[in-house]
Amino acid sequence: MAIADVKEYTHLTEDEVEQLGRELDAIRAEVEESRCDKDAAYINRMITVQRGLAAAGRVTLMAGLQSRKTRKPAWLAGAAMLGAAKILENMEIGHNVMHGQWDWMNDPEIHSSNWEWDTAQPAEQWKHSHNYIHHQFTNVLGHDNDIGYGVLRMAREQKWHPVYLGQPVFNALLAGLFQWGVALHDLDLEAIRKGKKDPVEMKRQLRQIARKGRNQVIKDYVVYPALSGKQWKSTLKANATANLTRNLWSYMIIFCGHFPDGALHFTEEELEDETRAEWYLRQMLGSANFEGGRLLHIMSGSLGFQIEHHLFPDLPSNRYPEIAVKVRALCDKYDIPYTTGPLHRQYGQALRTIMKLSLPNSMTSSDKPEPPSPSIDRRRRTDAERPTRRTETGAYYRGKTA
Amino acid sequence: MFTERMTASPTIPWRRVRNAADKLTTPLHPDDYLRLLNPLWSQRELRGRVEEVVPETEDAATLVIRPGWGWRYDHRPGQYVGIGVQVNGKFQWRSYSVSSPPVRRGRTISITVRAMPEGKLSAHLVRGLAPGTIVRLALPEGDFVLPDPPPAKMLFLVGGSGVTPVMAMLRTMDRRASLPDVVMHYSSPTEDRMIFRDELAALEERHDGLTVHRLHTDTDGMLELAELDTICPDWRERETWACGPGPMLDAISEHFESAGLEDHLHLERFSLKLSGDGGEGGTITFRTSGKTAEADGATTVLEAGESAGVGMPFGCRMGICHTCTLTLVDGTIRDLRNGDEFDQPNEQVQTCVTVPVGDCTFDI
Q1: Fewer CB atoms near the end CB (10 Å): N or C, chain A?
Q2: What is the pLDDT of residues A136-156, one digit of tens each?
Q3: pLDDT band for position B259 (cuts 50, 70, 90)
Q4: How far apart are the first and last CA of chain B?
Q5: Does residue B6 surpass a pLDDT of 50?
Q6: Residue A128 CA from chain centroid, whole number
Q7: Could you say which of A51, A219, A399 has the minimum Cβ distance to residue B33?
Q8: Residue contact B363–A395, C-beta within 8 A
Q9: Secondary structure of chain B: what % helix, strand, coil (to 5)?
Q10: What are the tens digits of pLDDT across the range B306-343?
């Protein structure tokens, strides 16, 4: 299958694809020009709420656990506030700030170049594996490590191996330990397995992960429990619960982004000579939204607007709802599928794919509107083999850290 | 941003307390939480609260600002500070002379701003800033300063809002009762627009050594420097400080040069004057964002980055506030103001006044 097949599938001529690209560019320009103090107030409010929740959660645990009477409600409230704070920080704040969504404010305190988020993955590595690799090569087999994260088989084009029979277990482990899975993501486990990883670079990355991870662990599992005195065990459990909640939630939201049935995978051939408009098209066909209220969208880092996020990763997330209306109208106009549904259905489909693909293809049927494709075992590309990066996906750098 | 700390009382190992608190707030800093309690309790980015906006003339006002943590009140009289204000969501930076004298145990600083006809930000500062607004600050800088002790004979040549750094010097000498023989020539379009005119009159009354010549240029025309011999016959013997519009400073500096007295002249310009030669230009790579830009010898790194769509930090755009500073990873750039070249790997450079000399790479 080549890029032309994707276009056939969507009934678009080359001119129509270019026209679609121009219309999406116009949406981007409109939002860029109208960014204003209301947007700045939004991210500042989000940060204030998140830090308030975090501080309140920590204090509630430290103080409330001391008395027998308040112990149980304090534990529940403390863990809940802390979990919510971590979710907000990772999803609506950290992820979006690191995409450069708020760089336009010229505020060094809310800037992609120096934001460090509350999880074990160092921001620098995240910006490479996510902003660059995932956002530029979205759903391209052999390029996008987010297809199964080097652990799961998420596309029928990936070759089956008996080890994938354990997929339901790997999936549960990945969900529970998501923070640590993400932390190791940019190491590129597959490259290490095949001996293709530069050992110097690997050492540097591991050191960086160890330093960040150590600080995170000390904070949640040593310092705060120690400050709770005799109640250290309760605090430790509450902190672990908050981390676990964040892990499960972010895992679920992220699996709804590209694994529901409507999201397509692509092959390397389709990437060749890809125009900007075709890149837009691939983002739309490769991503899936979910529906929900404003609170659900904020708690999921606006990734319920995954399609809009992939089209415009560096536009402020509070604008996605209004962008979504326009994108959906374009999808209707050009007769392109716009994959969306309630959260439980989207995750249900992803989970079904995980289960099905633990078995060989011959034993299961595809749920996707499957375009014909050769089943080739594709290795991942190194940066040197990849085309130059798209600039709208956000920043990253690979370099010496001071 | 975390390098400096006001010296707290010697009994509290403040730095150690802060480092310990870091363990609680990692990956954030304690200040990221404290500033939610009080916006001034942070030294990640220097902040200040506007306490008062005092109208000086119909188009100028003095902002009295209380700086937050990390501020040092020991600015030298005549220096300027950077002030960053969020306008429509975006931080815009300008630099203004501090007009208040340095007080070691001080609580506020004052800057006096004139709303320029074309200047959106200056108009906003004069008319749009309500007391209580939190602004960002940059530490004092500049070498247009009053020496300590002051020379025995001084001459100030001032035009318009150029009076502000000179006012800081006069106030300092007044406070320290060290005002020597001072002659001041102050040009302003009209009497009404003369900032600090009442205070100057009061100072003149109090100090025998101070003589102020006022010139209203709308009715009486500009200062002819040849007249200096009548206004201040001994100007050649005086240490001179001049501050005002660019053309006025150009004329003054020419006049002093022809008298061979340029070593006795101190200038403060409020606008960028690029005298250095441009670079050859080249390709600038912004490695973090993966973008590149072609720049000729007259395009600054900042402009090139902006046109390539890189989210470049920027401030005054005239080389004084250092907000635009980035790491030059590789290559050579030239400072347009003086032709200085920077070519050290990983050197911190200002992007708003530099141009590439050949290809270079920045870490953004």
Answers
A1: C
A2: 899 998 889 899 888 899 998
A3: very high
A4: 18
A5: no
A6: 13
A7: A51
A8: no
A9: 25, 30, 40
A10: 888 888 888 778 777 777 888 898 889 988 887 888 88
Interface test with A, best of B87, B136, B288 (most A CBs within 10 A): B288
Nearest residue to B160 (alpha-carbon basis) of B244, B249, B224, B222? B244
- Which residues are CB-contacts of B64 (< 8 A; sequence separation ≥ 6)? B50, B51, B52, B53, B54, B108, B109, B110
Give the contacts of A400 (CB within 8 A, at least 6 positions apart).
none
List the single best residue of B24, B289, B291, B348 to mutate versus A (max A Cβ within 10 A). B289
Question: How many CA atoms within 13 Å lie on the side-chain side of B118?
Answer: 0
Whether A104 and B88 lie within 8 Å, measured CB to CB: no
Instruction: Determine the straight-line distance between the first and last CA of chain A, rounded to whole angstroms.
Output: 46
Please give the ipTM for the structure prediction.
Answer: 0.88
Q: How far is residue A43's CA from residue A92's CA, in Å, rounded to a whole number?
A: 9
To the nearest whole Å, the CA of B43 is away from the closest chain A CA by 11
Interface probe, candidates A33, A106, A124, chain B, greatest B C-beta count within 10 A: A106
pLDDT at B2 over 60: no
Number of Cβ atoms within 10 Å of the Cβ of A332: 10
B108 touches chain A (CB under 8 A): no
Q: What is the DSSP string of A337-402?
A: -----BHHHHHHHHHHHHHHTTS-GGGS---S-PPP-----PPPPPGGGSPPPPGGG---------
- Contacting residues of B for A41, CB less than 8 Å apart: 89
Q: What does the DSSP 8-state code read for residue B239?
A: E
What is d(CA A4, CA A126) in angstroms, rounded to the nearest whole number?
A: 33
B residues 294-313 near A, CB within 8 Å? 309, 311, 313
A274 token code pair: 């890809």
Name the CA dihedral angle for A229, A232, A238, A240, rounded to a multiple of 10 degrees. Answer: 140
Establish, for the pair of chains A and B, how many residue pairs have beta carbons separated by less than 8 Å. Answer: 88
Q: Per-residue pLDDT for B210 more than 90?
A: yes
**Cβ contacts (< 8 Å) between B1 and chain A: which residues?**
108
Three-state DSSP at B90 gives: strand
Q: Quick check: helix, strand or coil at residue B60?
A: strand
Question: At residue B275, does pLDDT exceed 60?
Answer: no
For residue B281, the cross-strand partners are B357
- pLDDT tens sequence across B103-149: 777 789 999 999 888 777 888 999 888 999 999 998 898 889 999 89
* Res. A301: pLDDT tops 90: yes
Nearest CA in chain B to A216: B26
Amino acid at A330: L
CA distances from B243 to A263, A281, B142, B147, B186 (A): 65, 58, 13, 16, 10
Better pLDDT: B131 or A387: B131
What is this structure's pTM?
Answer: 0.87
Strand partners, A380: none
